[in-house]
């Protein structure tokens, strides 16, 4: 199918992608899709509500965005059925042609790399605050060497993140995704409880924005919403791993996942903004005192949540590198020809390279807020532009031979 243009005769004969194993259950697909979206963006939603000028305008933008977000997921499932490809970049390349496919691959790798870096940076920040709580001391006093982020984050990547990232199929992540989803929900519950209980350190009344300063400020939070709800990169892989592959079934999975995600994000954004008002930090956890035990637990669990999302992102990025490997070494001789891209040795090599590169960038990255804006802007390509192109091409292809299973 490589290199075929939309409307090519061979495309309509391509079988619908099927799973090699027993397949992913609907509940497992919901949790993986939900966990793909519930990431570091959760920390930024209270700040986004502040930038939008209050709860009402931010919630309106979020609801409008949700319609397009769900539509994009459904379109990607439809495009995967028509193209017969099992990866996002494969669907785009197969339906829209090799030129757009290569552009998609380049954006895909850059976006996923930046997401991985942001995830590791968030985990490192939570570990740093955790050590400050465990080993309190005056600021001039140096912390022990083992509390240095370069050591703790490297050790965490080697002992936890790397083993979680090595499985061949994305279906394995349904187990860790359940744990990560519960951890993210705990953070939302803590923010709600802190608003009603209002500990002594948070006793003063927050200053709330009465209205947005301008319409541009309302829409300036759009990249933050895209960053928070981005799960479209994983949509095709999840759909092709499902046991029951039909468009109606996939639409139900998409709606349930994003509605649950919207609930968690909205509760976090509303109560975080109402607690701190215009003084809310870009990282909501940074607004709370470091000595609060409940918040410390939330930090630890949120780090766990991020660590369960990182392997999903790595799986998607590795699939692109495996395509590069397959094209570059497909005609080679000797040992290179024997190295199957999905085999253990190549998979381990690519996984180690990805973790090493993102860890190095995370340790030397000066600021996270600018990276989130960049990621949100790039994510709009995968949420809106590429699915729109795939829909246009897939409709023309299906006229040749309709075979999409709608129910």
Could you characterize the architecture of this molecule?
The chain is an all-alpha fold and 407 residues long. The protein is built from 15 helices and no strands. It has helices at residues 26-37, 45-52, 55-83, 88-96, 98-134, 149-165, 173-197, 215-219, 222-229, 232-241, 247-276, 293-329, 335-338, 344-364, 369-398. α2 packs across α11 (247-276) and α5 packs across α14. It is globular.
Approximately how much beta-strand content do the residues carry?
A: under 5%
Compute the number of helices: 15
Cα Rg: 22 Å
N-to-C terminal Cα separation, in Å? 26 Å
Précis, in short:
By secondary structure, the protein is an all-alpha fold. It has helices spanning 26-37, 45-52, 55-83, 88-96, 98-134, 149-165, 173-197, 215-219, 222-229, 232-241, 247-276, 293-329, 335-338, 344-364, 369-398.
Structure characteristics:
407 residues, disordered N terminus, globular, mainly alpha, single chain, 15 helices
Secondary structure elements and pairings:
Blueprint: H1 26-37, H2 45-52, H3 55-83, H4 88-96, H5 98-134, H6 149-165, H7 173-197, H8 215-219, H9 222-229, H10 232-241, H11 247-276, H12 293-329, H13 335-338, H14 344-364, H15 369-398
Helix pairs in contact: 1-7, 1-10, 1-11, 2-3, 2-11, 3-4, 3-9, 3-10, 3-11, 3-15, 4-5, 4-15, 5-12, 5-14, 5-15, 6-12, 6-14, 7-11, 7-12, 9-15, 12-14
